Amino acid sequence: MNIDTFLAHHHIQENPFAAEEARLDPVFDRLLADALPHPDFPKVLGQVDQPATAIVFGEKGSGKTALRLQIAQHIDQHNAKHPDRRVMSVAYDDLNPMLDRLLHHRRQKAEAMLKAFRLEDHQDAILSLAVTRLVDALLDETPSEAGSLPLPESIDKHLKKKVSRQSRVDLAVLAALYDQPRHGSAGERAARLWHKLRLKRSFRHPMQCYGALLLSVLAAGLGIATAITSEQPSWAMPALGLAGAGALLLWGMWGYQQLQSWRLSRRTGRDMPTMTRPPGDLRRMLGPFARRDLARQPLPCPGASQRGESDSRYQLTDRLLGVLKALGYVGIIVMVDRLDEPTLVSGDTERMKAILWPMMDNKFLKQDRVGIKLLLPLELRHMLHRESARFFQEARLDKQNLIDRLSWSGTMLYDLCSRRLRACVQASDGEAALTDLFEQDVSRDLLMDALDQMHQPRDAFKFLYNVLQEHCRIVPEDQPRFQIARLTLESVRRDQAQRVQELYRGLAPA
Q1: Of 79, 173, 325, 367, which residue is least crowded by CB atoms under 10 Å?
Q2: Interior CA angle at 47 toward 45 and 52, to 5°?
Q3: Could you tell me if 317 and 438 lie in one domain?
Q4: Per-residue pLDDT tens digits for 420-431
């Protein structure tokens, strides 16, 4: 029997259990606004306008990505209700671009690069995502696949009247360092941002260059006039000396400042390997800033006076929070997910550890007005429990809203599957129950017991999908039966329970 015939008989528009990933699940998309959350979800979310860190460990398929999407949904709902206390959400769930840039920049093998991985690399990547999203919104260039960032009405007037000049300068510097446009040049976008922020460019370098050039021409003209004139005025030689000395002085000042600017850009770019910023581009983007404005910025430049401090990224984060506060935002929530999926990681636990462990720092996890939501594979939990007491003292995991394991009971999975089934049934057909698909000897408790053996939502969906498939496989088209027999349920349960157990023992692929 064709499965579409079975589903149509029960007025089910699409298979509720076919999807295996929340990001690509149309049923979950429809349920997202009113999804059935995990009981630990309130602890993970916390109070939206007071961002706090949470660490969640879960098996593959336990719903970590669904948790991330639900967090983003709650943030959007909060922002719609509280326009003066919005929170920016940053999805840090695709590490491939950052790791590829690191591998290219350091010209090392993957193992050596991962061993040298720093917390600053994570901070740069997160700042880049946040700054790019903010600049996209200000310039009205938000990609269609990314959620828009709400801004105050009449943003041009708001920037002029309610955002201080220092905050606008901070944003321009952050854009020069971290903006990563998907299309076009970062320099061109920086120029449009300067116009949007109503900032005036500093012309100190061109004026020095033009002054040196003018004095050089004057000195050359005086020298030629002196050489071809038989009678020299008494002021000619002193004027020639002054013009020549002035030209040399201005050329020296201009050259020294160009050298300093080049060194600053080069050292800053070298300390930010996760950004695609050649020193020449960075120098051009930092060039329009007045010297006093640039001196106040905590640029990540090792060795420079008052720069290159280990907390420069924390200071840059504070500058970003200051800009967001002027736009009606009280904090940032960063959602870290899919740590096991990058090409360089491919599920390797040691490589995941090398990437994650720099984040396990209490200063990073407890930043004021920043909430880090770490949604992590369960394999890292086993490695975490083998760490030393000193590691736990530095990470202070007892203060990070730790969920030791994202677990599901059979009852919870039954409710979740029932909710999905109802979402796929035609609205005019009223409430639908999971037991309606089975014969009368299949009770609700029997279904909950079978789902309990699946442990995770993904495995529960696979189980029910295979039950439907097996029923349709053994039933002929000319003698259809539209209720699934208990024998079919038990047969599939036995096979799927064995698969799940082999998966946990590492004997079968996910």
Answers
A1: 325
A2: 70
A3: no
A4: 999 999 765 567
